[in-house]
Amino acid sequence: MNTPTSDHIPQEAFDWYDEYAHGLIDRRTFMRKLSGLAVLGFSLSVLTSALLPDYALAEQVSFNDEDIKATYEEFDSPDGHGKGRGYLVVPRNVEGKLPVVLVIHENRGLNPYVEDVARRLAKVGFIAFAPDALFPLGGYPGNDDEGRAMQKTMDRAKIQNDFVAAAHYLKSHPDSNGKLGAVGFCFGGYVVNYLAAVDPGLLSAGVPFYGTPASENLRKNIEAPLMIQLGELDKRVNDTWPEYEQDLKANNVEYTMYMYKGANHGFHNDSTARYDEENAELAWQRTIEFFNEKLT
Is 136 helix (H, G, I), strand (E, B) or coil? Predict the structure, then answer.
């Protein structure tokens, strides 16, 4: 029996997982499709272990790291759910005002991978804040399937307003230098695009990873420079890029788009077999350099 890695899991399996993760097929259909790969020598249990997240793999910076301090903080969100909560990570022993970065999760709440991304940012000198859209329902439940189902029941407009409120909360942090960046993944990538479009003065830089654009009527408002990170095999999101690029060009927005060869949707998430280490590290290096340029 083969032990699948990202190098030889059939591409169909990644595509089915993307459809499942975004609600285009249900879990039963996803599992049935995976079962069909048994004829190729893949066991269902091994495939699901590879495709579904293992968050023990995602910790690059320990929450006990001496260079950072992490706490959970609440903020007011009068146009959203009234109150929000997020994971705030600040560098220790750093003097002066610091740039701040909002970290925005996928469509399943604030999971350990996204918390680790916030710690990675604090480790290199940014104040990072990762809100949990699921806070009004009790917070991320500890597994992605339940988190995804919970987020699907929520009012999308209120979720978006919660992230706007979180952005203002972070930008006004006592140690903020007043320059706000945002990085997000999947749904979070969409929210980065939305924040740039809904309030042109809010962001100083945005990095959406494989996120769809804001609605067409809002895109004319974008002023913040953007770094667009896309995976070559992510057809669903990539199909939205040509039109989005036309609007960015038409409105003279400063942007760079990187297309990562052979990378799937979710290639930065190091908790599943979709993770592409070489492309993820390059994309993250570019992200940090971009934030250093635009926020410091």
Answer: helix
> What is the C-alpha to C-alpha distance for residues 166 and 129, in angstroms, rounded to an integer?
8
Residue 57 is assigned to a structural domain of this protein = no
Q: How confident is the model at residue 40 (pLDDT cuts 50, 70, 90)?
A: low
Structure tokens at 132: 């949990």
pLDDT of residue 273: 82
With respect to residue 152, please indicate whether it lies within any of the assigned structural domains: yes
Q: Which domain holds residue 35?
A: 11-52
Residue-wise pLDDT for 127-169, tens only, equals: 999 999 999 999 999 988 899 999 999 999 999 999 999 999 9
| 84 and 193 fall within a common domain | yes
- The pLDDT of residue 10: 80
**Count of the separate structural domains present in the chain:** 2
Specify the pLDDT at position 4. Answer: 39
Question: Averaged over 109-122, what is the pLDDT?
Answer: 97
Rounded distance between C-alpha atoms, residue 50 and residue 239, angstroms = 26
Angle (deg, nearest 10), helices 112-123 and 277-295: 50
144 and 47 part of one domain: no
Q: Do 88 and 120 lie in a common domain?
A: yes
pLDDT of residue 16: 83
Is residue 186 a part of any domain in this protein?
Answer: yes
Residue 22, domain member (yes or no): yes
Give the residue carrying structure tokens 């595509």.
15
Amino acid at 54: D
How far apart (Å, rounded) are the C-alpha atoms in residues 134 and 160?
12
Helices (H), 54-155: 112-123, 144-152
- Closest to 169 (Cα-Cα) out of 125, 123, 128: 128
Q: Are 90 and 131 in contact (CB under 8 A)?
A: no
How, if at all, do strands 68-77 and 82-91 pair? antiparallel
pLDDT of 267 > 80? The answer is yes
